[in-house]
Amino acid sequence: MMFLPTGNENMTTCRLMTTLLQAAGLAASAAVVAAAVVANAGEADRFMTTAGAASAPVGFVEFCREEPAECADRTDRGLLVKLDDARWLDLIVVNRSVNQRIKPATDREMHGVEERWSLPTDRGDCEDYVLLKRHELKRRGWPASALLVTVVRDELGEGHAVLTVRTDRGELVLDNKVDVIRPWYETSYTYVKRQATVDAGLWLRIDDRADQPVSSIRR
Questions:
Q1: Mind listing the pLDDT tens digit for each residue in 28-73?
Q2: CB within 8 A of 26, min separation 6: which ones?
Q3: Taking the CA atoms of the chain, what radius of gyration do you get in angstroms?
Q4: Contact at 8 Å (CB) between 32 and 21?
Q5: pLDDT tens digits, 112-121
Q6: Which of 85, 120, 159, 201 stands 20 to 30 A from 219 (CA)?
Q7: What are phi and psi of 62, to 5 degrees?
Q8: What mean pLDDT value characterizes the chain?
Q9: What is the DSSP code (8-state) at residue 217?
């Protein structure tokens, strides 16, 4: 179920432009891309609205015990990264590279347990893709407060994880299901909760359209 209304010619054109630029593997001008991804800002908020504290996913809590440096980021205020050409290229390269290098596998197949978050080397579940993209973008100089692990419900109502990237043009989503980088409101997901911008160990609820429990990614 899409966030955007059907029949919006303006947004359809912008979506097509963004898809073609990325599919061609071009380091397209950030100004051109930004114009495309925020063209519908008048009809959909470019930034998610958070609504109070949420429990961190169990797998995330266990991951932080094993990899404390990945969860230690703190700041006085969350930053919005200026989406210039270099930053846009960072997103394209990291998103595609991780999606291509890591082969999908369930936690049961890899670890023999229902839920285990980790930095993958060759195989991973959705949250593992997210953790690796966040890790690699941080190594490229991105602030942790702009890279938020986010839990959603997918088209089937099942738990899924994506990386929300906060930019001055709005919040974008990096997803292991697609190589195209989209504004959060252009996905078909229902957004449940995500990391807090000021503390990587804290989580916040997202004020979205549904509040049913999420399966697979345990609370």
A1: 555 555 555 555 554 458 999 999 999 999 999 999 999 999 999 9
A2: none
A3: 16
A4: yes
A5: 999 999 999 9
A6: 120
A7: -65, -40
A8: 83
A9: S
Helix (H, G, I), strand (E, B) or coil at 204: strand
Mapping DSSP onto H, E and C, the string for 67-81 reads CHHHHCCECCCCCCE
User: Taking Cα atoms as reference points, which of 91, 93, 97 lies closest to residue 34?
Assistant: 91
Question: Which residues is 205 bridged to in the sheet?
Answer: 193
DSSP SS3 for 22: helix
Are 154 and 203 contacting, i.e. CB atoms less than 8 angstroms apart? Answer: no
Q: What is the pLDDT of residue 77?
A: 86
Phi, psi of 215 (to 5 degrees): -90, 165
* Pairing mode, strands 203-206 and 50-54: antiparallel
Residue 195 to residues 81, 89, 151, 206, Cα–Cα distance (Å) = 17, 24, 9, 10
Q: What spatial distance separates the first Cα and last Cα of the chain, rounded to whole Å?
A: 23
Q: Going from the N-terminus, what domains does the chain have, and what CATH number goes with each?
A: 9-206 (3.10.620)
Alpha helices for 24-84 (secondary structure H): 30-37, 58-66
